[in-house]
Fold each of these.
Amino acid sequence: MMRAWILPTLLVLSGSAIATGLISKGSPGTAAALLLAFLALAGVNSPLIFPRSIGALEAQRRSAADGRPVVFWRPGCKYCIRLRIRLGRSARQAHWVNIWRAPAAAAAVRAANDGNETVPTVVVAGQPHTNPDPEWVRERLSPSA
């Protein structure tokens, strides 16, 4: 879990250092805009936004055992962020797989989407659903999880 915080921390520290340099050079507006961009990137890559990702095979195994959906996503995807935010706390009941970290997951997404890596792709009972409505996904989450 500690490794999940490395990139967001580096983004915040880098953005802060660059913004400090810009402020000292008399560009506070540019510094603020750049710092906000770095903070947004850190937030998108933060484990606070997305539950910890697991491998595609592990997610499929767990889904077969507990019936919960598998959500294939990637960092920076605005539709993935929308799904995650709209699911709220119930998002942790799904099995999240980052396709950029799991080649088998990227292959599964391409197979479900005519060769495209379109995310979020949510697999429920073995059936893929591309960019489904968050309320539809919420209805398929296990209430006991």
Amino acid sequence: MSDIDPDRHLYGHPDAPVRIVEYGDFECPYCQAAAPILKKVMDESKGRTCLIFRHFPLFEVHPFALTAALAAEASGQRFWDMHDELFAHQNHLDDSHLAEYAYRAGVVDSVIGLAAQPYRAAVEADYNRGVGEGVRGTPSLFIDDVRYAGEVELEALRKATGSA
């Protein structure tokens, strides 16, 4: 698992001086609410802040979280497009819908069933890293390796990242 890049899903400029790491679950309503706020912080930071998404599917309470994480991972270079599709349609994350979202996101390969299984190690690596960092729920944010305990709200995040 050491060959899996924990920062592989980066939104924003890779050399941004401020890094937010989000441990998220595609079936979590709080993650869904946080997604546009986090993107807005990145988009408005003028390259100062980037976002790294790591999978933390709460499969005990969200029955489709793991398959959604696998589908997002299987989306490869279209990860962020799939990320947006999954959150936009969070209440319908069964395989037939996942295939439709992948098509809309521009993914050409299958993201469900056996085709998604090779991506299990990456999702598990993210999950295990989160457990090791004390993550218990989603979204869990870390700003420059320090756990963020504030509200996932635009002004609070701007202030926490120095973008205010």
Amino acid sequence: MSRRFRLLMPVLACFLAAVGGVFAGRAILPKPTQPGAELHEVLHHRLALDQNQQAQLQLLEQRFAVQRKALELELRADNARLADAIEQEHGNGPRVIAAVDRSHAVMGELQKGTLAHIFAMRQILRPNQTAAYDQAVVKALTDNQQ
């Protein structure tokens, strides 16, 4: 064996072990779920919504998608203003504080809008569907705390 080959073998073995570890981890570990995925699953697949409920749900989701996108764009703009303020002030000055406050206000509007959307979707459910829905909402709000 040449000296170069003896040096290359451990490096190659480590690389192959790392790649194998990544594939094993992906196969064994649970895949991360998107926030609210279970709520979506409950609404669209487990509650057996009738056609009228499905139409109402689709309309609610379309309206909220527009509202959410607008607020997310506002948050992006707020982040740019915050970055600019940080660059200008190099500390926790009045522009930075104002940019943070504005960002928090928009985050609050997004959270309030999301809750209004959740409650609006609940209103289209029949009484025998609300318990499963409420359970999915609570799970969506508390899942990341575990």
Amino acid sequence: MRTFRTALLTAAAAGLAVTALAQVPAAAAPAPAPAPPKFLSAGQLPASLTPWTAGPVRQGVPSEGSVCTAGIAPAAGTRHRDFRTELDTGARQTITVAATTAQAKALAAELRSALETCLDRLKEQDPGLEGEAFYQGRVDIEEGAHVYSIDTSYPEVGSTDIGLYSVGRDGRAVTVVEWGQLGDLDGAPLEGFKNTTRTAVAKLY
């Protein structure tokens, strides 16, 4: 009889343990990390006489080039991708994901200011340089994007270069798109570049 009672008590205790375990809520699964913003593909660049080729997406800020915006975006949270054609035309997209929306907004404003003052700074560094810079308007996409052109020349050697630039933001993500080739603004695909900018911001998230 004692053995039977002990068995009953043991079974009851086991049942209580199972019930208690069943009442403990399961630990919530960790939220999956958000997908990183997407980059432009080669086919989304402005039309060119020869096809665009897209390079790999690289971590950090570019090691060279991007003379107008160098030193502004932090290396942490930044990636970039270069594009080229068989002619003297190249492009680059840089994406930075800031820790907060407020930091992203401040970064976009600083990048815009750097583009607005870029030509003056280049002329200070090289007195032989001439050129014109224009604000080419806003692109209405997400938190907005802004487009600029910088036309430079060296009269002594007869060379001219045109660059198109844009800064756009979607939440915590800020992107800069750069496009450049030999020539002047009249030969630049301004509307195509605006479409590329719209696509770049739309693809962030």
